[in-house]
Model the fold of this input.
Amino acid sequence: MNLIQFMGAVEIGLLYGLVAMGVLLSFRILDFPDLTVDGSFPLGAAVCAILIVSGVNPWVATFAAILAGMLAGLTTAWISVRWNILHLLASILTMTALYSINLRIMGRPNIALLGENTIFSPVEELPYPHLYTMSAAMLVVTGVVLVLLYRFLSSEKGIAMRATGANIRMAKAQGIAVNRQILFGLALSNGLVALAGALFAQSQGFADVSIGVGTIIAGLAAVIVGEAFFNPKVIFMALVACVIGSIFYRLVIAMALNAGFLGLQASDLQFVSAVLVGIAMVTPKLRAKILDFKASRSRS
Done:
């Protein structure tokens, strides 16, 4: 793996760190298995791309993409909360509908943004190698979002949301409006994912209706890999672990696909992803067994 491939993997890893933080909100904090992200990621890209090619300011287009993603998450939460539909089924319904909605928004399967003004245009004009400036820009964006999300989750409202996911009956007993927490939490989660989609479209120069395939796997992989290696005990380290896990996940995939002796091709991406997620899920259990074995040996 050369330097270009390495920095490209870091850039994409930082971008998908936003997806990982969104997945952390739904899966870990709210305990709400949400597959909507496979639709909200391309939704963010579609809304942002169509607005940019229509002459809208890229910052406004990015903000509109976030709102669209929040609306998608709100829809999933409303279906589940209002009609008592199973979490997974509610998210699958929204995700399926979003495929057609994304096509309707773009008017065609993909939109090219080459030559268009984006939020990264000032960065691209800097007198430094594009290889480093884009990664630095992604690092700044991801870092800002991480700090803001941490501040929110440490606030009174954020603690109420965390209590809802930890024990919904106890949260109700404490007077927390759990339905509101689920609605806002899912909206915030998918807003982050849509932001990642908007940034992806602007950094890669295109938006496509199929870019959301496997987004939930990438997000879950980042969360699980981060937890497997860092075992975070506080919310700040959990967020940091998501981002580092996302970068590590992308680097491992890049190394696997570029290792000639393995004979892997770009079409094997989903296979490599599945294997990596499986290893990450097994690692904590193996580590626990090893620690138990060492403890039993020391006692004997």
Summary: The mean pLDDT is 92.
